[in-house]
Design a protein that fits this description.
Blueprint (H helix, E strand, L loop, with lengths): L1 E4 L5 H12 L3 E6 L2 H10 L2 E4 L5 H8 L4 E3 L12 H6 L10 H6 L1
Parallel strand pairs: 1-2, 1-4, 2-3
């Protein structure tokens, strides 16, 4: 599965990126800064430079994705695998960016 992850360099989402890659998924991570891009690339994911305010950039980054995740809710490191939520079809989005991601 190809997964588009925004905020991919954040603590929780970087863990998600690593878990997705370990499970054999292809990951594209959105990164705003050079430091974020470096962290996403070091994890082994493809990097797309941009931000949530750029609708055209989001559309480009999300093209071909089977799923996207923008924000994880109710996740704790000692809890169930993040992939359980992804595999069950629950894709989480931040309400402020929902329309731009939906349009992408």
């Amino acid at each position: 599965m190809r997964v588009f992850v925004t905020g991919a360099s954040g603590h929780i989402r970087l863990a998600l990126v690593q878990e997705l890659l370990a499970a054999g998924h292809e990951v594209v991570g959105l990164a705003r800064s050079d430091a974020s891009a470096t962290a996403v690339a070091a994890a082994g994911a493809q990097v797309h430079r941009g931000d949530l305010d750029d609708s055209a950039g989001l559309q480009d980054a999300a093209s071909g994705a089977d799923a996207h995740t923008q924000q994880l809710l109710n996740w704790h490191p000692s809890g169930p695998s993040m992939l359980e939520d992804l595999d069950s079809g629950h894709y989480f989005t931040h309400s402020g960016a929902r329309q731009r991601l939906t349009d992408a």
